[in-house]
Amino acid sequence: MLYELLLNYVESFSFLNVFKYITFRTGLAFFTSLLIALLIGGPFIKLFSNRKIFNPIRNDGPSDHIIKKIGTPTMGGVVILLGLIVSVLLWADLKNVYILFCLYIVVSFGILGAYDDYKKIKNISSEGISSKFKIMMQIVLALTGLVVLTYFVEYEEFKNLYFPFFKNLVINLGWFFIPFSIFVIVGSSNAVNLTDGLDGLATVPVILVAGCFAFISYVTGNIFFSEYLQILYIEGTGEISIFCAAIIGACLGFLWFNAPPAKIFMGDTGSLSLGGSLGAMSIITKHEIVLAITGGLFVLEALSVLVQVISFKLTGRRIFKMAPVHHHFEKKGWPESTVVIRFWIISIILAVIGLATLKLR
């Protein structure tokens, strides 16, 4: 929006040429979303508190959660989404189909998450909309976006699946590309949602993964860097680094209020939309498997729930004291801050490994 407006005056004011550089606009996107989140975070907390938009606590959760977290406002994802969306609208190229796709995913999944949060608040229960309805809607939303995206994307390699650590290991998914991509987006969305159970636990890993994909999208969209790293060059994906920077800035601003002890929770409004956008970026850059590495913590959290459910249904026994796995360690006596920081450390290690795959081929 503002980016396109400024380009109209480049011939008259040569210093405006700086806005043509993706790196410059990436920095602007980061600081814009950060500033917005910091400025509106406090007023939103006050507004939500006054309107009693509180986070319903699970009755079967750790006992200290009922004492410490009850009465904490939720739907903080609104703060993240406002900072993210405004920043992207200002500094990204809105003619870029990849930017539009990411915006569609983050907005549509955010609305679905907000509806889920609304149901929880209205019913004063940790159970919002049914899991079947939520997943069905996620599939419909992802399918709609992917069908439109594939219509506008013309390069042949779009339906390929690339494997890290290997130069020439490529699988053409063909018609299976759509269901696979739906699985990536929906799976990523729900994995982040499951991780968002402790103060700041999901926020920092999202920042780390977004940081990785800011770099990945930039080099993928640069013909010289992509050739040097021997990865697929995809014209236009460099703009996604602006979207990633907006995520990082908005999440950092939100973390100011979400750091232990949290003054506001992200809620499904934030976790579903952020998770879905990470999946969308991995599909655009053709680094879906790298997402599973850099976002390995999210995968671990999702698998812990899956294993717990399967084990209980088949044997009547639970593998973990409580799922997702972060609650298991709380039940074992780990302080919440210990669980959060150690999981952050795991995320940092996985992010480094994920980035290393770009060179180790």
3D architecture notes:
- The chain is an all-alpha fold and 361 residues long.
- It has one domain.
- Helix content is 67%, strand content 2%.
- It contains 15 helices and two strands.
- The chain has a two-stranded antiparallel sheet.
- The radius of gyration is 20 Å and the shape is globular.
- The mean pLDDT is 89.
Structural class: mainly alpha
Number of domains: 1
Radius of gyration: 20 Å
The side-by-side strand order for the widest beta sheet comes to: 1-2
Instruction: Please report which band the strand proportion falls in: under 5%, 5-15%, 15-25%, 25-35%, 35-45% or over 45%.
Output: under 5%
How many strands?
2
Tell me the major beta sheet. Answer: 2 strands, antiparallel
Q: Using the alpha-carbon principal axes, give the shape.
A: globular
Tell me the helix content. 55-70%
Distance between the termini: 39 Å
Mean pLDDT: 89
What would the keywords be for this entry?
single chain, 361 residues, mainly alpha, two-stranded antiparallel ribbon, 15 helices, 67% helix, globular
Give a summary of the structure in a few sentences.
With 361 residues, this protein is mainly α. It is built from 15 helices and two strands. The two termini are 39 Å apart.
